[in-house]
Amino acid sequence: MKKINPTIILVRPQLSENIGMTARVMDNFGLSKLSIVNPRDGWPNKKAETSSKHAIKIIDKAKIYSSLDNAILKYDLVIATSNRKRFLTKKSYNNFNIFKKKIKNFKNIAILFGPENSGLSNKDLRLSNFIFTIPTAYSNKSLNLSHSVSIISYELFNFNHDLIKNNKNQNIYNNKVDKRELMIFLNSLINDLDLKGFFKPLEKKESMIDNIYSIYNKIDLTKKELQMLWGMHKKLKKQPKS
Amino acid sequence: MKKINPTIILVRPQLSENIGMTARVMDNFGLSKLSIVNPRDGWPNKKAETSSKHAIKIIDKAKIYSSLDNAILKYDLVIATSNRKRFLTKKSYNNFNIFKKKIKNFKNIAILFGPENSGLSNKDLRLSNFIFTIPTAYSNKSLNLSHSVSIISYELFNFNHDLIKNNKNQNIYNNKVDKRELMIFLNSLINDLDLKGFFKPLEKKESMIDNIYSIYNKIDLTKKELQMLWGMHKKLKKQPKS
To answer: Which of A71, A144, B32, B71 could form a disulfide with B65 if both were Cys (CB 3.0 to 4.6 A apart)?
Structure first.
């Protein structure tokens, strides 16, 4: 199955840093197509370039439009993001499971983000298939523009990841100690503790030993770590030369 | 069912805007506790306040520390975020399902984010229970600091949302040791090993100490288990009566 690579469309963005940061986080999550409708501070834009860091290629290839209508012509699915309650009959969702179901079966997808101060206008929403609201805490719904893009990009990355469904669940060989090695160590440790009179009162000895086993079995020790524990143990019990 | 509200700890952050943006996105997703270790541009900081927008209360209440050790004393689970490959034995995950399983049963959780240019140092990682890497596209792993916080905060918001939804899912707090208790034990252990000449050759001392930290931080010790380790340790190093 082919990965999806929706176009992020920034509509009348105001801050150049937000354009750059948008490109950067798109690239972090494997998206590459950016369109911009009427950026307030013009184009090309040095600040946007700088703040995009290693994603300058996305800035360089960004498509600039003077109207949203022109920007969305080629898409078969357009999703408008918004955090405002709208009195429109347009469908609105705020659940990424639904979002992911909705984008299946579409090839050319665009996702719209409005200007920082006011968000998308009702007119901007006209040609969108549905409105999506990123779920947030009730008390503060005002996400920074590039943060909104970060969450959407991240979820699209997850979507693509699930698509690929790689069943090459590789076991990375971690060189863990086996139970035999651990047991030899624990026997030695317990024996030394016993000689020093650690297990008191005697009737608690077994449960104390249970606890020691429990502690060291929780660690998932590697062979190297066990070696270190051996070294520490031997050193600690060593008597000073007289 | 009680929501979790982990503390976000920014370690030596460089850009004030990132501190403000971090507070803003924390608030978007219902987090409220911010600690900062040695912010480069000092504190209080006007730029951080401005860029936090409606989350100024998080900036106002942020706790400032001059050392990471002091910042994490009271936490029983400390997660270090990193995108670098480390040559440490510390556990590392990059899957949020595992992340969410790991944070269950802990009450006092801190999540560390390193400085923008270099990330967390190996020494910063010593007392963390595990490393978490936000999954990203292979070609560009360098997330902006506040974008990293946005993804983590968003997933914690999802976690809390799910908690409430299936409220059968009870958090059982297991009486885990906090970092202060662990640090006191490890300091004593390392000190005793040092006195016995364990750390040889000297140039390996720091990495040997890293390993000791790593081993004991993997255990998720309960208070009772730590007590037992103390007992064992004291007994082992005790000299016989002559």
So the answer is: B71
Q: What pLDDT was estimated at residue A165?
A: 67
* CATH classification code of B7-165: 3.40.1280.10
Interface of B with A in 98-127 (CB under 8 A): none
Residues 203-242 of A with CB under 8 A from B: 208, 211-212, 214-215, 218-222, 224-225, 228-229, 231-233, 235-240
Q: Of chain B residues 137-156, which have a CB less than 8 A from chain A? A: 137, 139-144, 146-147, 150-151, 154
b/e per residue A210-235 (b: at least 16 CB within 10 A):
ebbeebbeebebbeebbebbeebbeb
pLDDT in tens, A135-185: 999 899 999 999 999 999 999 999 999 887 644 333 344 577 777 888 899
Contact B228 A221 (CB under 8 A): no
Cis peptide before B240 (omega within 30 of 0): no
Identify all chain B residues contacting A228, using CB atoms and an 8 Å cutoff.
Answer: 208, 211-212, 215
- Angstrom CA distances, A138 to A25, A68, A128, stand at 25, 30, 25
Q: How far apart are CA B45 and CA B62, in angstroms?
A: 11
At a CB cut-off of 8 Å and minimum separation 6, what does B194 contact?
none
DSSP characters for A152-219? HHHHHHHHHHHHH-----------B--HHHHHHHHHHHHHHHHHTT-S-SGGGHHHHHHHHHHHHHTS
CATH fold of A7-164: Alpha/beta knot (3.40.1280)
- A185 to A82, A178, B110, B186: CA distances (angstroms): 60, 11, 34, 20
Domain locations in chain A as residue ranges: 7-164, 179-237
Q: Model confidence over A59-89: pLDDT tens digits?
A: 999 999 999 989 998 888 899 999 987 766 7
Residue closest to A39 by CA, chosen among A60, A70, A18? A18
Nearest-5° Cα angle at A197, A192 to A203: 110
Residue B81's contacts (CB-CB under 8 Å, 6 or more residues apart) are B111, B112, B113, B114, B120, B131, B132, B133, B134, B148, B152
d(CA B97, CA A162): 13
Q: Does B95 touch chain A (CB under 8 A)?
A: no
Which is higher by pLDDT, A164 or B1? A164
Angle at B138 between CA A116 and CA B140, to 5 degrees: 40
